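User: Structure please.
Assistant: Input sequence and predicted structure:
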Amino acid sequence: MSSQPTALAASVRAAQVPPFHAMTMGKRASEREAAGHRVFHLQLGQPATPAPATAVDAGVAAMRDQSLGYTNAAGLMSLRRRIAHHYDEWYGVQVPVDRVMIVAGASAGFSLAFLACFDAGQRVGVLKPGYPCYRNALLALGVEPVAIPVGPDTRWAPTRELLDAAGDLDGLIVASPSNPTGTVLSSATLSMIGAYCGARGIRVISDEIYHGITYNGPADTMLQHSADAVVINSFSKYFSMTGWRLGWIITSDATTDAFERLQQNLYICAPHVSQVVGLAAFECQPELDALVDGYRSKRALLLAGLASAGLTRVADADGAFYVYADVSHLADDSLILCNRWLDELGVATTPGLDFDTALGHRFVRLSYAGSVSDVTEACTRIGGWKP
């Protein structure tokens, strides 16, 4: 008598990682579209515009004329030099080129950073609300994410008192502009974080992927306030290159070798053609700044539309392309609300549970990275909707 083979389960760590609801909503939205329904996309932070045309042309030429094999693990030297120059241009910060590493998107950058900087069992502070993949990736690596709750009373920014309340930390992840609130951390706040963490030996990982998309002046880089910070940036947002999967890390002196060894073993290198396109995109700043002007207009459109719909309790959207709105007067569970809006209105949004497991049921994140028509029609439909 033969027995059936036992199905092998996923690892315990993998089973503990929660879903990324923004991607789940995106999948549901795509299924709805495939069934012939119109969907208005406010769920993902993905620019509706393609990469700059001249940058794409550079990529097409490279595909025709070059072999496009592996690059060095740290990336094309020409692109690394250009990124180092970028920090001097934008921030007045001198970055040695050997601390610049090109990666396959910021998501790969975070995985490398968490592996290079933290050991299993260590405690890393994450702001709540905050990007869920920090927390979920740390969990997958056996590192303990420590929630640091922020809200409108601190303008969604950490304070010394909140950091003290988190207890002993080995690391701290900050983002400016942030996802989901769009908060830009002030120079004073970043300076406090740099001094606080420097005095206590806390490693700072700074997510700066929305730099360039700000509405009240430029954002500081953490490197202006901490020489030991690890900074992660991406070509996905300001450069409008999500699908090219390209980003970069500014490592610290003490971790540069570890980052390169991890890159060699986990990813080999970032995609060669994407690096060619990224290098050319740096010369397209007027075109990219025009896109930011478009985000500014859509931000005003969405805020006005939400106000007309009765959604007035929103975070200050200083940067990025999100509005984080309190919807507790409409529903007790934002996940249920988002599913209802998709099913009944064709409006795709992201529940706040992605960003805050404690209070996120009261909030919804709406992205204005997409088209003007999607933002306009979504506001009209939400305004006419009755719970």
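The longest strand covers residues 123-128.
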